[in-house]
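Q: Here's a chain of 235 amino acids. Please give me its 3D structure as tokens.
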Amino acid sequence: MKSLTRRQKEFLGKLLDLYYQENAPVHYSIVAERLGVGKVTAYEMMRLLEERGLAQAEYYRPEDMRGPGRSSVVFRPTPLAAKILMGLAKGKWREDEWEEAKARILDRLRAGKASDYKTLLEELLSRLPHQRSPTVYLTQMVTAIALGLHSLKDVANANGMRKILRKVGLPGELDLSALAGLSVGLSLVERINRRIASALLGQAKRFQKFLAELNAENRRRLAEFTREILDIVGI
């Protein structure tokens, strides 16, 4: 396949982000709004991506539409789209993505303090397999593991789980590599939902790979972020 231009990557990336955010096909006008371009420009780019096998158009009529009228066109990324952009990312740390992803998660955690965080955990687990950005993926994965541990808080108090956490570096001087092992360990605890455990376990290898690609400064940043999460959820 012919290489994507910078502009094409930008549009395709935004389509992927919006699609996985809403879990539904995206109207081209939304892509236009998020990228600050005209609707015609966004529509033409979506059609170009469709020609290249990276987007798929669908037509629908709003439920409240009566009588004759024009169907709206929406687009969804193809499996090839996610594969290509994941390959282009190659472990690169994006400063803008880091700040945005970190702020979004911390806001959600603080707003849901004293709750079980179930909704947020479900959202993260559904997005992780499709997340193309290593920066956002790592941010979401450490949060998902922390929330998995939060669901075991009562058990941790009862069976010495906290001692185990201290040995692997949580929540003191964090050894991030231990988190991948923790995601595996969570699958062995009867209390945790089996589907959640399976989802975390399925991401452990990819998580470890992205961690290995981080430089020392970004590992430190991620470790500090993880400790902040653990403090908020009370682990």
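Q: Can you summarize the key feature?
A: The two ends are 48 Å apart (CA to CA).
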